[in-house]
Structures are given as C-alpha cells and as structure tokens.
C-alpha cells in the first residue's frame, strides 16, 4: 500500500515537460511534428485517437489506416525549458520550435 501511495504522490508532484515530438511512418518515411505541454504523456493520446480513427490530422490518420500501428514510431525531438514563461510565452516557444522541426525534417505540422 505504501508503494502505491508513493507512486501516486510522485505522479502528482511530477511537472509536465513541454516539448516537440514526431510521429514517423517507417514504411513511407513521412514525419508528422507536433508540440505539447507534456511530452511524457502525449504518445498515449495520439495513439488513442489514431486507433479510434478520430485523429484531427487527416494525413496522419490516413497513413495510420493504410500501414497500421506497427509502422509508426513516436520520438521526442526536443523539450522546452518553460521555467518562468507565462502560458502564452510557452505556446509561442512551442510553435516556433515545432516550425523549426517541420522545416528540418520536411514534416507535416500536426497543428495545421
């Protein structure tokens, strides 16, 4: 019981880490880049929506439907030091870094 309480306390105390991530299709080489307030939990959310067929990015959903889950990998590209940033500043930094990675990887921006 104590270990469960300790795990729960550690989870609650963990600060979200904003960052930029890529979802890559190994069969086509396509990359899809997104930004999030918490990279540690983002993959489960992306995979969940893809499995339901309800991901908001039609190109990613189409690739997932065509090639299946095993063709995809999730990669954290960069974490953002958000210390001292207001929410708007954090969002602007994430957008800037997401744009950088889209250009670097010639990737689809998941926000658009």
Give a nutshell description of this structure.
This is GIY-YIG nuclease family protein. The chain is an alpha+beta fold. 49% of the residues lie in helices and 21% in strands.
Helices and strands: which structural class?
A: alpha+beta
Strand order of the largest sheet: 3-1-2-4
N-to-C SSE series? Answer: HEEHHEHE
Biggest β-sheet, characterized? 4 strands, mixed
CATH topology: GIY-YIG endonuclease
Shape call: globular
- The N- and C-terminal alpha carbons lie at a distance of 45 Å
Radius of gyration: 16 Å
Mean pLDDT: 93
CATH superfamily: GIY-YIG endonuclease
Fraction of residues in helix: 40-55%
**What number of domains?**
1
> Strand tally, please?
4
- The helix count comes to 4
| Gross CATH architecture | 3-Layer(aba) Sandwich
InterPro entries: GIY-YIG_endonuc_sf (IPR035901)
Protein name: GIY-YIG nuclease family protein
Features:
21% strand; alpha+beta; GIY-YIG endonuclease; 112 residues; GIY-YIG_endonuc_sf; four-stranded mixed β-sheet; 4 strands; GIY-YIG nuclease family protein; 4 helices
Can you walk me through this structure?
With 112 residues, the protein is α+β, with helices and mostly antiparallel strands. The protein has one domain (15-109): GIY-YIG endonuclease (3-Layer(aba) Sandwich). It has helices at residues 2-13, 39-52, 58-67, 87-105; strands spanning 19-25, 31-36, 72-79, 108-109. A 4-stranded mixed β-sheet has the order 3-1-2-4. A hairpin with a 5-residue loop joins strand 1 and strand 2. The protein is globular, with a radius of gyration of 16 Å. The model has no long low-confidence stretch (mean pLDDT 93). This is GIY-YIG nuclease family protein.
């Amino acid at each position: 019981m104590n270990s469960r309480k300790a795990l729960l306390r550690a989870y609650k105390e963990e600060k979200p880490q904003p960052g930029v991530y890529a979802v890559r299709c190994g069969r086509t080489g396509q990359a899809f880049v997104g930004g999030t307030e918490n990279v540690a939990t983002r993959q489960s959310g992306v995979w969940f929506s893809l499995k339901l067929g309800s991901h908001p990015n039609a190109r990613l959903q189409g690739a997932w439907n065509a090639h299946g889950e095993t063709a995809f990998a999730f990669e954290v590209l960069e974490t953002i030091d958000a210390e001292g940033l207001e929410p708007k500043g954090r969002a602007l930094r994430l957008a800037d870094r997401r744009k950088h990675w889209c250009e670097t990887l010639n990737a689809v921006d998941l926000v658009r």
